[in-house]
Amino acid sequence: MSNTVYNPSQNYLIQSTTDYSQFRLDQTNRTINQDHLEKLYDAIKNKNLLKEFPILVTEDGTVLDGQHRLKAAEALDTPIYFIVAKRMGIDDVSETNATVRKWSSADWLDVWCKRGAPEYLKLQGFMRQYPFIKIANAINLCTYGDRARLHSDLKSGKYKCNDLEFAHQVANAVLDFAPYVKFYKDPRFIYAINNLVEHEGYDHSRMMAKMTYLSRKVVKCPDVQSYMDMFTEIYNYRTHGENQVRFVRLTSNSPQRRRDRIRRR
Questions:
Q1: Which of 3-17, 130-144, 247-261 has the lowest mean pLDDT?
Q2: C-alpha–C-alpha distance, residues 115 and 111, integer Å
Q3: Distance CA 106, CA 119 (A)
Q4: What secondary structure does DSSP assign to 186-205, as a single string?
Q5: pLDDT(86) > 90
Q6: Least enclosed by CB within 10 Å: which of 68, 90, 125, 159?
Q7: How large is the average pLDDT for residues 121-135?
Q8: Is the pLDDT of residue 29 over 90?
Q9: In b/e form, how buried is each residue of 198-234, taking b as 16+ CB within 10 angstroms?
Q10: Count of CB atoms within 10 A of residue 254's CB?
Q11: pLDDT tens digits along 186-206
Q12: How far apart are CA 186 and CA 53, in angstroms?
């Protein structure tokens, strides 16, 4: 079964069908991405916008753009909407797609702030207070819990700015290092300070006192553990016995993690 809808504002025909056999994939197009296909499948089940995003095909049914949408529609046995593009080829679509700018985290933050989402406005306020912190660092700093879903939550409006107090602690600690460290804005350095401040027993005033005469020992490191080794040396300088502290790269189960940072909800 096939239906046709004329769109006078765009001067083209949008057609729909459940006869998927009339289409064929162009073998020179990108390979089907299974992960993307599964995400698209779930998205269409949740809200079917295939009519609003028709695929592009040639006059002989070769899919120029929308092969994942076609496959998902077929799997769901739902109509696929399409436009016959008489003046386009696969190279035209490739070049057009290559110039499309993907949405960044900053774009999603901006959109949800414009919609008045409180959690996003908190994050935006934090970033405005500490403009030297890049958005990826800020998103992580201001969130406590599972970080695996941060990007998807940010897009969907589910982001929670639930660790703002700690984020301020880290940001202010970074600013205390700033007079001694030229690269204090570096994301890896900021993450290292985050890790440092989370250690049980870490005394920031003690570290700053050591920095007044040992700042030359601070160098840019390739990873967090290297920073921890460096901070351990500085922090323990001329300190003996039980007053020495070893800093490590913390994990969720690290016994060195501050008690108020364990199993918080």
A1: 3-17
A2: 6
A3: 14
A4: -HHHHHHHHHHHTBTT--HH
A5: no
A6: 125
A7: 97
A8: no
A9: bbeebeeeebeebbeebeeebeebeebeebbebbbeb
A10: 15
A11: 999 999 999 999 999 899 999
A12: 40
- Cβ atoms of residues 222 and 214 within 8 Å: no
Task: Tell me 257's DSSP state.
Answer: B
Centre a 10 Å sphere on the Cβ of residue 73 and count the other Cβ atoms it contains: 25
Tell me the per-residue pLDDT of 211-223, one tens digit each, with 9 for 90 and over.
999 999 999 999 9
Contact between 82 and 64 under an 8 Å Cβ cutoff? The reply is no
Ranges of CATH 3.90.1530 domains, the chain: 2-99
Mean pLDDT across 16-24? 94
Amino acid code (one letter) for 201? G
CATH topology of domain 2-99: 3.90.1530
Say which residue the tokens 């390739």 belong to: 222
What is the predicted pLDDT for the residue at 90?
A: 72
Strands of 55-57's sheet in order across: 2-7, 12-17, 80-84, 55-57, 62-65, 24-25
